[in-house]
Amino acid sequence: MKLKHPKKITVLLTLLLANMAINTSVAADLTRQEVIQLLKQASKAEPANLRRKDLRGVDLSKLDFRKADLWGADLRGANLSKSNLSGLVLDLTVMVGVDLSDADLSKVSIFGVSMMRSNLKNANFSGSRVIANLDHSDMTNANLSNVRWGADMKNQPMGLMRVNLNKVNLTNANLQNADLGRASLRFANLTSANLNHAILLSAELEAANFTNANVSYADLTSAKLAESNFTNANLKKANFSKIQGIKSSRGLRDNKTKSLAIFD
Asked: Which one of 86, 89, 197, 220 has the lowest number of neighbouring Cβ atoms within 10 Å?
């Protein structure tokens, strides 16, 4: 049997399926007020159970989560700005597009997580351990001092697990004593960042911008520097041994502090 107006039927079916998808979409498991109530009742012995909870898009700003269990929670698009998550284990959480601006993430553990396209301005990550994908995120003025974000070469059961910071804005960020060994920072903006004593061993730094950055005493041994920019950067005692791509890097050959750096 031939159907009349097959194109119109197809359009109607498409609209019907789309409407069904919208109506069956799952809302967040908890509201802001419900989360606040759980946090009020929490203690170190019995933390607020937010484990694997769906908190997508929820406003959780300015809350103290130090007595909460957020392991594996879905925080996509959630607003956690100015919140306190210091010392938490956030392994296997989902945080794409999360707002953690001005948040305290000191000493957190974040492993196996995607935090792409997130707002991390002014966030405090000092002393944290992160192996995650932060590509396209904004980390302007973020504190990454003493972080341990380098790849653990003794524990790579699924191939190279490392932090990805490709196309991340790290303008004015503090990366003093940061371990970013084997990290990927392609096209990262490190303008005026502080990388004093940072470890960038074998890091992928193609097209990264270090203009006016403090790279003094940093270890860039075996790093890939093709198309990178070191204009007016402080290179005092920086180790550039065995680097790759020096011919296409900018601002390195004629840098005023180049004579103070270490080249092989």
From this structure: 89
